[in-house]
Amino acid sequence: MWVIATAGHVDHGKSTLVRALTGMEPDRWAEERRRGMTIDLGFAWTRLPSGATVAFVDVPGHERFVPNMLAGVGPVPAAMLVVAADEGWKPQSAEHLAALDALGVRHALLVVSRADLADPEPATRQALAQLAKTSAGDVEAVAVSAVTGAGLDELRAALDRLGAALPRPDLDAPVRLWVDRSFTIRGSGTVVTGTLGVGRLATDTDLELGGAAVHVRGLQSLGEPVSTVDAVARVAVNLRGVERSAVARGDALVSPGRFVFTDLVDVRVHGEPVAGLPATVVLHIGSAAVPARLRPLGTDTARLRLARALPLHAGDRALLRDPGLHRVPGGVTVLDVAPPELRRRGAAAARALELSTMDGRPDVAGELRRRRLVHADELARMGIPGPGAGWLLDPVYEVELRARLASEVRRYAEAHPVDPDPPVDAIRRRLGLPDRALVERLLSPPLTIHNGRIGAGQRLPERLRRAIDAVRAGLAEAPFAAPESDRLATLGLGPKELGAAAKAGLLLRIADGIVLLPGAADAAVERLAALPQPFTLSEARQALGTTRRVAVPLLEFLHRRGATRRLPDGRHTTDAGA
Ligand SMILES: Nc1nc2c(ncn2[C@@H]2O[C@H](COP(=O)(O)OP(=O)(O)OP(=O)(O)O)[C@@H](O)[C@H]2O)c(=O)[nH]1
Ligand SMILES: [Mg+2]
Question: How far apart are CA 42 and CA 24, in angstroms?
C-alpha cells in the first residue's frame, strides 16, 4: 500500500479529488460537510490501475488548521499538491509546500484542479517553478476536473508512477506509529490509527506508549481485520488496557526499547538563520506538535527543550513553527537525542563546534568519540544502529583506560602486599566503568581474571585447570582445609603444577604442598585480628577451623608478609607493634 497526503490552499479541490478517486468521503464530520471545508484529517483509499492500493490522508487547506495539516503530512513521505487552475498559487499553497520541504518530502505530484473553470497552464507553470525549489524537485503535473472527470485517468496513472518510485520501507526497522486519531469502540476499547511508515505490526505483541508497555489486541487496515500489517500502511490498532483519555493525536506507539524518550535535543535548522528564530517555537514531528524553548548554539544549530518527551532518533526530520506568525521557519534535523548538559563556561561554544560536524546520519565512530563509552543498544535507541553489540568504546579512550587499569592494578598491589590481586569490582569502580565485562575486555597480558580478581595469571592446560578447580572448589567450602598430600597426588598436582597455579593466581602457596585460595591470607588476618591479642597457635588454629598442618605454615607465611608478628613469648599478634 502507498500512503499519500494531500496539500494545498483552502477550497482548491483536494477533498473533491479524493472523493472522485476513491468514492469515499474524506470529510468525516457533519460540520465539515455543512461548511464545505475540511477541518480535520480525512482518510480514503482505492485501487489503482496497477492493482496497487493507495490510501490518502486528506488535509485541510484553511490557514487556521495548519496544525492539523502538519499532523497529516508529518508521518507520510509522499504528497499530492493540489492547486486550482482558476486561483493559482495562494498563501497556503506556499505554506504547505514549505512544510513538505521542511520535512524533506522528496516524492510529490502536482495536480492542477478545477481545469474546467480556467486554463490550467499558468497555474501549472507557477506551481512547478515553486516545487522545483524544494526537496520535491521536478515533479509530474496533471490537470484534472472533478466535475467533468477530465484528467482523472491520467492522474491515476501518475499516482501509480509516484507510488512505484517510493522507496521500499524497511520492515525490520523499529515501529513508530504516530497516532492521528483515537477513539473507543464498544466492546473493544481504545483504538488508535496512524500511518505505519516502516516496520511491521502484529496482534498479540507489545508496544510502548509513552514508555509504558501496551498490548496490541487487534489490528485493522483499510477497514479489514488483519493479524499483521507491513509498512507502508494505514492501520488501526486496538489496544488492551489503555484508557481512551490516555492516548491522543501526537502520541506514538513504538517498538519496545527501540526509542529514546527525550525532551532535550540538539538540532540543525534548515533555511533561516537560528538567530532570527523566536525563543518559543512549536516542534512538529509525526503527528505531534510540542512547544519548545529554543537556544541557539551555532549559526544553524540549536538546542530544543520540549514541553513533553517524545520518542526520537537522531536523523529525524521535524519542523519548527512560530504559531504567532503564520510562516514555516524551516525544517530541522535532529542531531542528538541525548546531548550533554552545557554547564561549564564555553561549553555552548564547544558544543556548537561539535554540532557543526554532525549531520544526523548514523556515525558510530563520531558518537564514540563524543560519548567515549556507550552500549550498542543505547545507541540504537538514539537512532544510531551500529556494527557490534554490547559496550562500545572509543579507541582513544580505550587506550587511556588500559593504561589506567594497569596502573590501578599496580597501586592496589602496593597497598595490599599480602593479597596483591585486586577484585575486578574494585578496579571497575576506580575506572568508573558500568560493567565488569569491560574490565575483562581491557585487560592485556599478562593480566587475567581469576576467581574475581585481577592478576598476572597464565593460561593453563585444561587437565591442570580442572584439577586446580577441584582444589579450589574444596577450599571454597572450607577455606583453611588445605588439601592433603595424597589428595594432591591423586589430582596430579605436584610442586611444578602447584607453582603454575600459584603463578596464575589461582592458588596461594603458603608452603611446599600447602595451598589455599588467593584470598585466604586476607581472610585469615581478618579472623585472627578478631581474637584477643596476642593469641596462641592453638587459638589461631581454632579460629581458622583448621589443623596444625595448615596453621603453622600459614602463620609463618603471614609473619613473612608482615601481616602478623611473633612475640618473644611464642604467641602471635596482628597488632603492628611499636
Ligand atoms: N468546477 C469545479 N469545481 C470543483 C472542482 N473540484 C472542486 N471543486 C469545488 O471547489 C470547492 C472546494 O472543494 P473542496 O474539495 O472542498 O476543496 P478542498 O481543497 O478540500 O478545501 P479544504 O479542505 O477546505 O482546504 C467545492 O465547492 C468543489 O465543488 C473541479 O474540478 N471543478
Ligand atoms: Mg478538503
Answer: 10
71 CB contacts (<8 Å, ≥6 apart)?
41, 178, 180, 249, 250, 284, 286, 287, 288, 289
CA 13/CA 17 separation, integer angstroms: 6
CA 314, CA 383: separation in Å to the nearest integer? 5
Give yes or no for residue 6 CB within 6 A of ligand 1.
no
Q: Quick one: which of 89, 135, 94, 130 has its CA closest to 112?
A: 89
- Ligand 1 lined by 13 (C-beta under 6 Å): yes
pLDDT tens sequence across 306-332:
999 999 999 999 999 987 775 666 899
Hey, whose CA ends up nearest to atom 8 of ligand 1? 13
> Within 10 A of 510 (CB to CB), how many other CB atoms are there?
24
Rounded CA separation 2/77 (Å): 10
**CA-atom Rg of the chain in angstroms:** 36
**Cβ–ligand 1 contact at 114 (below 6 Å):** yes
CA–centroid distance, 181 to ligand 2, in Å, is 17
| Ligand 1 atom nearest 113 alpha carbon | 31
Buried b vs exposed e over 214-240: b needs ≥16 C-beta within 10 Å? bebbbbbbbeeebeebbbbbbbbbbbe
Alpha helix segments (H runs only) across 480-574: 485-490, 495-503, 520-529, 537-544, 548-561
Ligand 1: does its nearest atom lie under 6 Å from the Cβ of 147? yes
Per-residue pLDDT reduced to its tens digit, 475-528 = 988 999 999 999 999 999 999 889 888 877 788 999 999 999 988 998 999 999
Tell me, in angstroms, the distance from the centre of ligand 1 to residue 17's CA. Answer: 8
Q: Show the CA angle centred on residue 454, arms to residues 453 and 459, nearest 5°.
A: 105
Length, in residues, of the chain:
578
Which of 10, 14, 16 for a ligand 1 pocket mutation test, highest count of atoms within 8 Å of Cβ? Answer: 16
**Distance in Å, CA 137 to ligand 2 centroid:** 25
DSSP, collapsed to helix, strand or coil, labels residue 15 as helix
- Would the CB of 15 count as within 6 Å of ligand 1? yes
The response to whether residue 14 sits with its C-beta less than 6 Å from ligand 1 reads yes
- Which pLDDT score, from 0 to 100, does residue 577 have? 66
One-letter amino acid of 533: Q
**146 Cβ closer than 6 Å to some ligand 1 atom:** yes
Which candidate, 8, 3, 34, places its Cα nearest to that of 113? 8
Q: For residue 105, what pLDDT is reported?
A: 94
Cα→Cα distances 131→50, 100, 103, 294, Å: 27, 10, 14, 29
Ion ligand 2: residues, Cβ under 5 Å? 14-15, 38
Give the C-alpha separation, 74 to 561, whole Å. 72
Whole-model pTM: value is: 0.78
Question: Quick one: which of 8, 17, 41 has its CA closest to 27?
Answer: 41
Distance in angstroms (rounded) separating the CA atoms of residues 123 and 121: 6
Q: Is the pLDDT of residue 457 over 60?
A: no
pLDDT, tens digit (0-9, with 9 covering 90-100), for 109-134: 999 999 999 999 999 999 999 999 99
